[in-house]
Amino acid sequence: MVLSKRGGGAAMGPKPLPVPAPVLPSPYRPVDASWDSEEDAPGPRCGHTLTAVAATGNPDSSDYVGPRLILFGGATAIEDGSSALGGGIRLAGVTNAVHVYDVLSRKWKRYSPVGEPPSPRAAHTATAVGTMVVIQLCLLFRADQANRLLGWHWSCRAFY
After folding, report:
1. pLDDT at 3
2. Cα 75 versus chain centre, distance
3. Angle at CA 73, nearest 5°, toward 68 and 74?
4. How far apart are the first and last CA of the chain?
5. Which residues fall within 8 angstroms of residue 117, CB to CB, at 6 or more apart?
6. Which residue among 8, 86, 99, 159 has its CA within the 20 to 30 Å range from the CA of 112?
7. Over pLDDT 90: what percentage of the chain?
8. Higher model confidence: residue 63 or residue 89?
9. 4 has a pLDDT exceeding 70
């Protein structure tokens, strides 16, 4: 576009055409996932947590457990909450199920950790702390000092 100055005003030519943003390759790529049984499939849900946990053990040993994603809880249905106080929608089918996605094998598996699980919940928080997943004051998955898998255990405590 060329601007020219004539007298006291500026005359402009046609407006420039917008330049489209460059299309960059996506850093994400879809992968196929599988499961051995319907129980292993996590199914659709909302309000869950999905926490990445690093690999444990030596890759050359039998105690090696590769990187995984831990899916916990969530709601498996949404109901009309218009009759509820405040209206809107309401989460339903809240669960405390644990599903694990093995990043290397691309497989989902449902786990039933040992111990007393936390109550079913949705819209909660979870984070990885070393080899554990902390779900609102509950720990899931434990490894020993040598980073060997001890198993999936719940360890819930009340803090006052």
Report:
1. 41
2. 14
3. 115
4. 68
5. 96, 138, 154, 156
6. 159
7. 20
8. 63
9. no
**Half-sphere exposure (Cβ direction) of 1: Cα atoms closer than 13 Å:** 10
Instruction: Find out whether 99 and 111 touch, Cβ atoms under 8 Å.
Output: yes
- DSSP 3-state helix, strand, coil percentages of the chain (rounded to 5)? 0, 40, 60
Q: Measure the CA angle with vertex 43, ends 93 and 80; round to 5°.
A: 35
Query: Which amino acid, one-letter code, is at 107?
Result: K
Choose among 59, 46, 75, 70: nearest CA to 128.
Answer: 70
pTM over 0.70: no
pLDDT score, position 120:
86
How far apart, in whole angstroms, are the C-alpha atoms of residue 113 and residue 106? 21
C-beta of residue 124 within 8 angstroms of C-beta of residue 49: yes
Task: Give Cβ neighbours of residue 52 (< 8 Å, ≥ 6 apart).
Answer: 67, 68, 69, 70, 128
2 three-class SS: coil
**Which tens digits make up the pLDDT trace of 100-133?**
999 999 999 998 887 778 888 888 888 888 778 8
Pairing mode, if any, of strands 3-6 and 9-12?
Answer: antiparallel
